[in-house]
Amino acid sequence: MSFVRRQWLGWAALPVIGYAGIVAWLFSKQRDLIYLPEGTRIDVAQTDFTLARDDVQLHGWVLHPQASRPVIYFGGNAEGIQHRREMLDRLLPDRPVYLVSYRGYGASGGVPSEAALLGDALALFDEVRSRHPNQPIAVIGSSLGSGVASYVASQRDVSQLVLIAPFDSLAAVARVHYPALPIRWILRDRFDSIDRLRGYEGDVMVIRAALDTVVPPANTNRLIAALGKPPKVVDLPQAGHNTISGNPEFEQALADFLR
């Protein structure tokens, strides 16, 4: 092989090597890119509820603990769920509401992963059920929390399920944002809600934001189509992913559905 040919092949291989390097880096760092807890951290003293999970302490809040028919809230990525307390206290004054930060978020210890978050979510549901025996339990999941809530609904008796800006799967959303990457092969935490909820027959309300650029409406639509029982769908034509909670129509729909 001539020197010129070898040199040309070497230059031609550089994009392939660079692409492989990017894929390898993304594979090793993917959980640092998926989970964004940095802006949510608070002191344990600001919380009023603790759930022990092996060697990890999860912390959060409970509103109206003596009331009946509890509600569990699973928040979005990078969301400080303490900011949901005022809204949920106002909208659901006669129901207990449990808000617990994911591990690695808020005041909770540990490191987030799909398996850990889902296991923690089931433990929280079981703890709530032990505190409110023989009562229906509703679950709310927002964005990333919709994947957590969907898993809980597939494993436990959830009386009502609210999904705010939900996705069919995290892998499907990632493929939309990164079409040039082999997401199917490198993504470990997939939050596959579409498969988990395919046979769910409980009452579901889906909040869909028309201007959502984080979870494209097409991904939400695929989840809606896969549900065993048609959900109540609330469309917010002027809302984006991060402006849903300030929408009066959203608050009214949430209050009406959970009353």
Gist of the model:
The protein contains 9 helices and 8 strands. With 259 residues, it is an alpha/beta fold.
- The first-level CATH class is given as Alpha Beta
Strand order of the largest sheet: 1-2-4-3-5-6-7-8
Strand-residue proportion: 15-25%
Please count the beta strands (DSSP E, at least 2 residues each).
Answer: 8
Measure the end-to-end span: 77 Å
Give the overall shape. globular
Q: Which consecutive residue ranges, at least 5 long each, have pLDDT under 50?
A: none
* Structure annotation, total helices: 9
- Please give the share of residues in helix: 40-55%
What integer is the average pLDDT? 89
Identify the CATH homologous superfamily: Alpha/Beta hydrolase fold, catalytic domain
Write the H/E string, N to C: HEEEHEHEHEHHHEHEH
- Count of domain modules: 1
CATH topology: Rossmann fold
Backbone structural class? alpha/beta
What gyration radius follows from the Cα positions, in whole Å? 21 Å
Largest sheet: 8 strands, mixed
Question: What is the name of the CATH architecture?
Answer: 3-Layer(aba) Sandwich
Pfam families: Hydrolase_4 (PF12146)
Domain Serine aminopeptidase S33: 95-171
Keywords: Hydrolase, Membrane, Transmembrane, Transmembrane helix
Protein name: Alpha/beta hydrolase
Write up this protein.
Keywords: Hydrolase, Membrane, Transmembrane, Transmembrane helix. The chain crosses the membrane at residues 7-27. This is Alpha/beta hydrolase. The chain has 259 residues and is an alpha/beta fold. Strands 1-2-4-3-5-6-7-8 form an eight-stranded mixed sheet, with helices on both faces. It has one domain: Alpha/Beta hydrolase fold, catalytic domain (Rossmann fold, 3-Layer(aba) Sandwich). The protein starts with a helix and ends with a helix. It has nine helices and eight strands. The chain is globular, with a radius of gyration of 21 Å.
